[in-house]
């Protein structure tokens, strides 16, 4: 039975709802939607966005108001839900939430963006170090329970040169630093996860999922692929299609990211 999973950084859910997110959600065929950078606390969201009809929702806002925030929307009621992974520093940061559905654990991740030479980059490095250990634990736990797992979200790292258009100009910028790319490689090579979209689109360039609002980045398709669905191997092997729902024109965008949608034959 096909299961469709979508992930998107909404760049502020209240603003996205005004620009077209609500209409998109009403029309999507997805069974699971993972949101990042929600920003607004649940009680500040309109009811039709906070708890839309036909969906079960879990929101994990950041302790710092107006920042980060992740959410999961599932058509089927989750068996269990967890915010964070037991991190003293990051569990209240609105960056990770996961839910158990029959045979599947799905998570929404908003990895810190970082900025070279600042505390923000140090925070990103600490997050990655902790989160890698949790990813190993998650895969072990799911294997013991006979479950698959997929971690969806804005990973804020372009893994390969094919994952951003202007890679030569960004080799010293956060998001494409050699050490960040090596860390993401370790998620695949050591922790044993699979980049689902790249598996179905092995050559590139892209498909990009984020374009700056500045200049003509969107019109020129000068983007980055930083929104991933990262899954256990058996689930990745059952992925049948992967698309980036890129808006037809600049004025139809409701975020600077586009939804990344994968269908699995499960």
UniProtKB/TrEMBL annotation:
Entry cofactors: Mg(2+); Mn(2+)
One Gene Ontology term of the molecular function aspect: double-stranded DNA 3'-5' DNA exonuclease activity
Annotated signal peptide: none
Superkingdom per UniProt: Bacteria
Site keyed Transition state stabilizer: positions: 156
GO BP terms: DNA repair
Site entry: Important for catalytic activity: 227
Keywords assigned by UniProt, alphabetized: Hydrolase, Magnesium, Manganese, Metal-binding
SUPFAM superfamilies: DNase I-like (SSF56219)
Positions bound to Mg(2+): 9, 37, 154, 156, 256-257
InterPro entries attached to this UniProt entry: AP_endonuc_1, Endo/exonu/phosph_ase_sf, Endo/exonuclease/phosphatase, ExoIII-like
Annotated positions for site Interaction with DNA substrate: 257
Every Endonuclease/exonuclease/phosphatase domain range: 7-257
Cofactor: binding comment: Probably binds two magnesium or manganese ions per subunit.
Active site: 110, 154 (proton donor/acceptor), 257 (proton acceptor)
Family statement drawn from the similarity comment of this UniProt entry: Belongs to the DNA repair enzymes AP/ExoA family.
Protein name as annotated: Exodeoxyribonuclease
Species in which this protein is naturally found: Wenjunlia tyrosinilytica
């Amino acid at each position: 039975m096909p299961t469709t999973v979508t992930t998107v950084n909404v760049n502020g859910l209240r603003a996205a709802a005004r620009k077209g997110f609500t209409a998109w959600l009403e029309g999507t065929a997805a069974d699971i939607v993972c949101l990042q950078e929600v920003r607004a606390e649940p009680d500040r969201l309109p009811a039709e966005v906070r708890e839309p009809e036909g969906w079960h929702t879990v929101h994990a806002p950041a302790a710092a108001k107006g920042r980060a925030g992740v959410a999961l929307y599932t058509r089927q009621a989750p068996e269990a839900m967890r915010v964070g992974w037991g991190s003293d520093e990051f569990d209240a940061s609105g960056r990770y939430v996961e839910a158990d559905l029959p045979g599947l654990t799905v998570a929404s991740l908003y990895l810190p963006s970082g900025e070279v030479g600042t505390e923000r980059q140090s925070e990103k490095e600490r997050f990655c170090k902790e989160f890698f250990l949790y990813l190993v634990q998650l895969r072990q736990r799911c294997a013991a329970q006979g479950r698959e797992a997929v971690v969806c979200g804005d990973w804020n790292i372009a893994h390969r040169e094919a994952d951003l258009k202007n890679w030569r100009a960004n080799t010293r910028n956060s998001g494409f630093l050699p050490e960040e790319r090596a860390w993401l490689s370790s998620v695949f090579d050591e922790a044993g996860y699979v980049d689902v979209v790249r598996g179905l689109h092995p050559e590139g360039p892209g498909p990009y999922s984020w374009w700056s609002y500045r200049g003509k980045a969107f019109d020129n398709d000068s983007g980055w692929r930083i929104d991933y669905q990262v899954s256990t191997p058996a689930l990745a092997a059952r992925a049948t299609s992967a698309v980036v729902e890129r808006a037809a024109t600049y004025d139809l965008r409701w975020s600077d990211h586009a939804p990344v949608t994968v269908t699995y034959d499960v």
